[in-house]
Write a structure and sequence with these properties.
With about 725 residues, the protein is α+β, with helices and mostly antiparallel strands.
Length: about 725
């Protein structure tokens, strides 16, 4: 069906096939987004019971709104083809995660808790899954758990009076064996009616496999596996997994009891017991404490302090990062939830953390009020909370007090080095700090105008405090970006070099200074020294996205493509929501002939770009990079639409003009592509080296206008 259109959906790729249908990636042409489209085969659509089961999946999914359950958009029928449309989940399923010997305890709980939370939500709506297995549990690039494929789901609350057809179909399936043998409950194996306790058994089998690396039931054929499910008791998890606490091992035994009455009866009970096992591990010295710091809410009278609120949260993240025994979610990952809101337990579970810090800021004149609260994700109870009423000049002390309070509340051990890290302050000038934070916000928005505004802000910060290393590093980055994307002048390159070197002299322990220095060195083609600077930056701050991103770029320009992929993977781990990384990685995979990897990376990048556009419709970079991914995936019409949208956002930005030209060249829009390149040169950018070597522009090389343009650059 690849290339076909159903209603407004154009099918672009085959994703998976199962007993209840085939799943495709499709383009929703009306809403401009990628979706998953599940088609019920004609032979099953002709069977009333199968068709009823297919529609039941739609009802089951639509009834539950939970972040760990795939979202259903619609159920439709066109020309007697029955299909439903769903959220497209990019990532890997648990089959790709489970190792021989099992995952780490931290990874286990980061998966187990969201998985059981999804079951808890489904069961609350009277829905059981009946086919839980590793292939039906996905991990997104950001580590979020998503339960898929409710194709065998059963509405246990249905009655013959409420829905006679569904009740009849349910009666028929009591005599069928539905599910996957390796994770199937004994009652399912016998063809008996299953209730929520059947999901508890399947969850137990899946979690046993996840923790130990061994399947609880074995056999070379389905009949042998079913016999093992009905007959065998698997070895205790503690006998296969060193360090497994007895409570957790007994909990999995309870889940795997043959008699449903001997099991835990609800997912809520299973959640409570898992959380108890987690607390036991934490109290016995396992380094499982983890935290996400959300951007603080702006309660200032004019609501004009978003940069300040984000800055406070980021400084706390930086203070906590690197402390032994504490996992800290990166800024880019946790800040995705800036506008999403929601229950703290759900946010914490999506981020895979045990604790969540949130707060608010009210700044009126020189008076500052900060409310901060540390929340236990397990039960949404406050671990610690405090209100700070201070003068603005006390902001650095308040940040330090919050960080120290978190360390104390989570019982994280810190030595003299940790204590020094928590109280480290880069400037004592509140005005310099404020304007620096404003500059950082503009810098992260990309685009010529934003970079130039950020540069002015950083210059002002340095005027207020000449020894402000972080502001100098930011200033160096603006010159580097202007050199790379706007104006490759000697002055921009020199200023990037001077300011990055100065930042490093002032604060040799500042990771951002090393990253900025590395980029300036790379632009000066001192690649070996740049690589050393990037390594030092990542050692100082393992969550610093720029350290890996710039290092990857340094490898690309040297032709070290495999090394670049490795650095891009580390950048993606630091910032799973960043759309640039998979798209840039896809280009390298393509150049290496790794077509499947390139296709998967482009799909992920396109999905992340779509999310970025939803969050910020004026993100031109997301538009043109997303357009490139779409074009490479064969979505030419949509790619053209996105490319032109990027151009409309800022038709005078040379980076946008150049990248849109690449998009248009790939689409065969030769004249329009060359016009964009000509405008790139008119606004002052000279990309001769790129124009001569960029393979995206190969379709233009024989055109007289293109040859004339390149020759004019000298």
């Amino acid at each position: 069906m690849i290339g076909q259109t159903l209603a407004r959906y154009r099918i672009v790729a085959d994703l998976a096939s199962g007993a209840m249908g085939t799943v495709y990636q499709a383009e929703d042409r009306e809403l401009g987004r990628s979706i998953a489209l599940k088609v019920l085969p004609q032979r099953l659509a002709a069977d009333p019971s199968r068709l009823a089961r297919f529609h039941r999946e739609a009802r089951a999914l639509a009834a539950v709104n939970h972040p760990n359950i795939v979202v259903i958009h619609s159920v439709e029928e066109v020309d007697n083809i029955h299909f439903l449309t769903m959220e497209l989940v990019n990532g890997c399923n648990l089959e790709a995660v489970i190792n021989n010997g099992g995952v780490t305890f931290e990874e286990f709980f980061n998966i187990a808790l969201p998985l059981v939370a999804a079951l808890e939500a489904a069961h609350a709506q009277g829905i059981i899954h009946r086919d839980l297995k590793p292939a039906n549990v996905m991990l997104t690039a950001g580590g979020q758990v998503k339960v898929l494929d409710f194709g065998l789901a059963k509405l246990v609350s249905v009655s013959a009076e409420a829905d006679p057809a569904a009740a009849t179909e349910a009666a028929v399936t009591r005599s069928e064996i539905l599910g996957t043998p390796l994770y199937m409950s004994p009652e399912q194996a016998r063809g008996e009616e299953a209730d929520t306790r059947s999901d508890i058994f399947s969850a137990g089998a899946l979690l046993y496999h996840l923790l130990t690396g061994h399947r609880p039931f074995r056999g070379t054929a389905a009949a042998e596996v079913l016999a093992s499910v009905l007959r065998d008791d698997p070895p205790p998890a503690a006998s296969l997994r060193p360090g497994c606490p007895p409570h957790l091992s007994r909990l999995l035994d309870l889940c795997l009891a043959k008699n449903p009455t001997a099991r835990l009866s609800t997912a809520t009970e299973l959640m409570r017991e898992l959380e108890g096992s987690l607390r036991f591990l934490e109290s016995n010295g396992h380094p499982l404490q983890s935290i996400a710091v959300l951007p603080f809410a702006d309660l200032s009278p004019d609501r004009d302090q978003e940069h300040f609120c984000s800055g406070i949260a980021e400084e706390i993240i930086n203070a906590l990062t690197g402390l032994e025994g504490l996992k800290v979610v990166s800024r880019m990952t946790s800040f995705q939830f800036r506008e999403m809101g929601g229950d703290s337990r759900d946010i914490g579970r999506q981020l895979g953390v045990t604790a969540l810090l949130e707060g608010s800021v009210r700044l009126a004149g020189d008076r500052l009020r900060i409310m901060a609260q540390l929340i236990d994700v397990a039960d949404s109870c406050h671990i610690w909370s405090q209100r700070f009423d201070r003068e603005i000049e006390d902001i650095f002390q308040v940040q330090d007090e919050i960080a120290l309070s978190i360390v104390k509340a989570l019982q994280v051990a810190i030595g003299p080095d940790g204590q020094k890290r928590l109280v480290d302050v880069h400037t004592l000038n509140p005005a310099a700090y404020d304007v620096y934070l404003r500059g950082r916000e503009f810098f992260r928005r990309w685009g010529k105008r934003n970079i130039e505004i950020a540069q002015r802000m950083f210059l002002q910060a340095v005027d207020l405090d000449p020894n402000y290393a972080a502001a100098l590093a930011g200033l160096a980055d603006t010159y580097s970006y202007l050199y790379m994307y706007i104006n490759s002048s000697d002055e921009n390159l020199e200023q990037a070099d001077v300011n990055s070197a100065r930042a490093l002299v002032i604060d040799p322990a500042l990771a951002e200074a090393h990253a900025a220095r590395g980029l300036a060195l790379s632009l000066n083609r001192n690649f070996e020294a740049a690589d050393r600077a990037f390594r030092t930056a990542s050692e100082l701050d393992a969550n610093l996205f720029e350290a890996y991103y710039f290092a990857a770029r340094n490898c690309v320009v040297q032709g070290r493509r495999e090394a670049a992929i490795s650095y891009y993977e580390q950048a993606a781990a630091a910032s799973p929501a960043d759309y640039q990384i998979p798209i840039l990685t896809a280009q390298i995979h393509q150049s290496l002939g790794q077509d499947d990897a390139a296709r998967d990376a482009n799909r992920l990048g396109m999905e992340l770009a779509e999310k970025a556009i939803l969050a910020n419709p004026e993100d031109a970079r997301a538009c043109y990079m997303g357009a490139g991914a779409m074009i490479r995936l064969g979505q030419r019409e949509r790619g053209l639409k996105w490319a032109r949208r990027a151009l409309a956002l800022d038709p005078d930005d040379p980076a946008i003009l150049y990248n849109v030209a690449c998009n248009l060249a790939g689409l065969g829009e030769v004249e329009e592509a060359i016009a964009c390149l000509e405008n790139t040169v008119k606004v002052g950018a000279a990309y001769r080296e790129w124009m001569e070597n960029d393979t995206d522009l190969d379709p233009l090389r024989d055109h007289p206008r293109f040859r004339k343009l390149v020759a004019s650059l000298g």
